[in-house]
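User: Hey, my collaborator sent me this sequence without any context and asked if I could get a structure. I don't really work with proteins. Can you help?
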Amino acid sequence: VQLQASGGGLVQAGGSLRLSCAASRSFFRFDVMGWYRQAPGKQRELVARITRGGSIVYADSVKGRFAIERDNAKNTVYLQMNNLKPEDTAVYYCNLEDVTSSLYWGQGTLVTVSS
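Assistant: No problem. I've predicted the 3D structure and written it out in structure-token form, which is a compact way to encode the shape of the chain:
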């Protein structure tokens, strides 16, 4: 599976961005899609993940500001990021975990939030 992430960029604090991640195949029943991020000098961390049925988990740091959604017809998952903060600055990666627990990663898209 290949994942193509896009939508990153430079935004001022308080602004919004919408990330997209398109998969090279249709989503299967047990696929879990996720967004992770890695800031300079830090470990990669989970931002949000969503099952095919729509069950969602968010990191505490983004609850109420970020929203993940998936369009199964378009094989695409989105991350709407509102009220961005400088600490949200990171490379954002999309991820697919299939029923065998195999993990697939997109190439990453840089989000920079200026204060």
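In plain terms: The CA atoms of residues 29 and 53 lie 8 Å apart. You can pass these tokens on to your collaborator as they are.
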